[in-house]
Amino acid sequence: MITDEEIEKVRKSANIVDIISSYIPLTQKGKNYFGVCPFHEDHSPSMSVSEEKQIYKCFSCGAAGNVFTFVSDYENVKFLEAVKIVADKCGIPFHGVIKKEKPKNYTKEYEAMNLVLKFYQNNLNSKEGVLAKEYLLKRNLGEDVIKEFELGLSLGGNLSLNQLLLNKGFSKELLLQLGLINQNNGYINDVFQRRVMFPIHDLEGNVVGFTGRIYEDSGQAKYINSKESNIFKKGQILFNYHRATKEIKRKKEVILVEGNMDAIRMYASGIKNVLALMGTSLTKEQVSILKGLRANIILMFDNDSAGETATYQNGTILEEAGLDFKVVRLSGEKDPDEYIIKHGVKALEENIRSPITFLDFKLKYFRKDRDLSKVDDLANYIKEIIKDLRNIPDELTRELTLKKISEDYQISLDLLKNELGKEKVKKNEGVVQKKLEKVRISKYDRACQNIIYFMMNDGKFISEFESELGYFHEKKYRNLANEIIYYYKEKQHMDISAFISFISTKDYIYDDAMEIIRKNQISTFDMKAFDEFISVAKKEMVQQEIRDLKEQIANSMDANEEIELAQKLLNLKKGCVGNE
Predict the structure, then answer these.
(1) Close Cβ partners of 552 (under 8 Å, ≥ 6 residues apart)
(2) Mind listing the pLDDT tens digit for each residue in 18-55?
(3) Is 208 in the same domain as 170?
(4) pTM given for the model
(5) Looking at the structure, do residues 183 and 210 belong to the same domain, yes or no?
(6) Which residues of the chain are modeled with pLDDT < 50?
(7) How far apart are CA 470 and CA 112, in angstroms?
(8) Do 451 and 567 sit in the same domain of this protein?
(9) Domain enclosing residue 133, as ranges
(10) How many domains is the chain built from?
(11) Within a 10 A sphere around the Cβ of 379, how many other Cβ atoms?
């Protein structure tokens, strides 16, 4: 493992302005540099980068941190990987070894799945795998693809998987939970039999499940998938993620398809920035994964009615999440897999280079199964468009869409704008209601957070805190303050950028510290303001002690104890300004 001293050496050698400007353009204004924030939909430079403090902060979304934080969030990598990236950019030797993270839990499950993968691969390369290998070769899936995607073969019968796993000491209950076996009338059978096997990996590249496809005419379902288990959650995985991320980051573009076979075909044909859904609509977790890639998204789902509906549903999810994306609708063939086989990869690439906007897709989608020569169908079509326009923040796009509808269908533009206004009022009412429901941060919490923020920025506030307040009631503030004091006494100075690196592995305080940094808008630090925050915190802490003492007195069954508590209460009230 790399030492804290080596991490600090990399941080000191890296100018945050140089590193961030290698990702986004920065412009100097006064002492600081500004750029368009890559962590939200930013249309004007709202990210400030301080060369003096070696930190960055977005005044719109609150993204903040030091050079490692930026690289970690931008590249969607863990802290040590970010340190290595920065070290490489600065030409500094990196002595740490970044190992593939091993799952901490469910070690037996992962062990079983790795053995299953090897078993299936061996089957495909045995004499029993000749027919399956021929099937794959006929589908233009050569040895290189078989090896790259770790394809295998399930057999069953006398060469069953369950016998191997049970003999290796894996319990029947575990195999049932993983969906590898089923049990009927006391007999145990493999779930997957006589199928070509496509392994499914989690985001770190661990095998967590399988898709099995028939390769003979057997009358069975064409595809079957592993059921969800402790290690396989469909909504938390995007197929091919662990292979595709490098190319996605290079191209800054990700193509999202429906099926595993589409992703395999495209990847094997040289289009490596492709991910596939796992048979469900996008989940919050998957949207978060896509956000983390910070790449333009292209939806390219099947060319049928179900694929059209999936494009609308998943496009709506992405739109509501504020992600940039476009749509490719193939014609002639059912999916990208068949399209490449029939027309070749270059034809598919031409489609990818000519995507349409989601709005253009929706204008066609809303016309589906409607006869616009009929008044009712036309009215419902326009109402659906207007309802949808309320989710589009760009005023110019809304205006041009309404103008196009007005010209195409000879409807008053003012009438359309009036209808859109009604929809926006409905939306705004909902937003206002949500804001009212939000719990506001108390004056006391704000004071505590400001005190901590001041302390992270200058050591003089640490000494003042220790002499005037000394501690916080709340554990999260107390832990943070203690860590700041420890760091200051250890290093004999306070550097917020270095402190962020120092606490990067301390999970119990890191998130709280970064939340305070993100939310705090203070840029001028003076002792008078700090003392005011101390006064607010002190007053509330005394009031809390008074409330606690009153409760103890009310619950006390001992007269002597009551007298002692009452005296403490009296002493507190004497020193408390503004109490009742």
Answers:
(1) 565
(2) 999 999 999 999 999 999 998 887 778 999 999 999 99
(3) yes
(4) 0.71
(5) yes
(6) 429, 431-439, 577-580
(7) 53
(8) yes
(9) 107-232
(10) 5
(11) 12
